[in-house]
Amino acid sequence: MKKFLFIVTLFTLVSCADEEPIEPDIDPRDKFLGQWNVSEEEQGVGTLNYTAGVVYDSSNTSRIQINNIYNLGSGVSVKALVAGNSLSISSQDADGIAINGSGTYSSSSFILNYTADEGDQVHTIRATYTR
Questions:
Q1: Torsion of CA 27, 28, 34, 36, to 10 degrees
Q2: For 109-131, what is each residue's pLDDT tens digit?
Q3: Core-most of 7, 15, 30, 101, by most CB within 10 Å?
Q4: Contact, 55 vs 67, CB < 8 A?
Q5: What is the spatial distance between Cα 52 and Cα 37, in angstroms, rounded to a whole number?
Q6: DSSP H helical segments within 16-120, as ranges?
Q7: Helix (H, G, I), strand (E, B) or coil at 14
């Protein structure tokens, strides 16, 4: 009987314990979404300013789609893999230009370092995305 009372008491104490709140899953891509002001720098060429949009990649829950990269137009995009505050663009064709690079999100903006290979010339770009 004592054993039974001990088990009942134990279950009562455990069931009364405070439960930790369950945090909703936060998608690491969310911080990259939306419209951005882009300041793109290429050494020896200067700075170009334009806007770009970032949306979810509907075919992969770990990727985003960056529209108007390299100021190629809103219909031109590349896909970037997001891991935490980092993103990476594997080499892919954007309107005949091979784009690849990586970036980091920090303080409500992100820096994207990438190359744009036009076939006859490779451009090294540092683009700052701010709101």
A1: 170
A2: 999 999 999 999 999 999 999 99
A3: 101
A4: yes
A5: 7
A6: none
A7: helix
Angle at CA of residue 71, ends 69 and 118, nearest 5° = 80
User: What mean pLDDT comes out for the span 65-76?
Assistant: 97
- Rounded Cα distance between 66 and 13, Å, is 52
To 5 degrees, how large is the angle CA 124–CA 73–CA 64? 75
Place of tokens 């190629």: 72
Q: Which amino acid is at 84?
A: G
Q: Which helix (H) or strand (E) holds 42?
A: strand 34-42
Tokens at 64, concatenated: 């985003």
Q: pTM for this one?
A: 0.81
The answer on pLDDT for 12 being more than 70 is no
Look up residue 42 and give its two tokens. 């290429």
Name the token pair of 44.
Answer: 């020896």
Domains of the chain: 28-130 (2.40.128.420)
